What we know:
By secondary structure, the protein is an alpha+beta fold.
Amino acid sequence: MANLKIDNLDKEIIRILIDDSRLSYRRIAKKLKVSAATIINRVKRLEKEKIIKGYTAKVDYEKLGYDIDVLIEIKISKGNLFLVEKKIASNQNVIAVYDVTGESDAVILARFTTRRKMDNFLKKIQTYDFVERTHTKLILNTIKDDRMRLE
């Protein structure tokens, strides 16, 4: 992948798809003043190289009842980080799992419909082998939750 050249057209295609992944190749081509075949070829290449990993809808989870968001910092015994992270990542309520620097080894972002479900999840991960400590932060307000813009 180191040899893959991403030019301004590729970046423009990615920007458009980030804004609206449902646009047809023809509409993207019209916006960028190139042929639909060019867009098709570029998108296929970006998908093949795993720069574009998939397409999804942006959902308002709060309207679906998922209004409890938490950040969970976890301290994990040495040498067992990936094992624990993989186990936690398999839970349907987990949105993201990050390796981090600092006092914690991992940070988990998760979303729940009830406090009871959140509490059950927290108690469950605290019983996992190699989890030394957790520190949970309830997210009160989300100021920004969006995809990054390309420069």
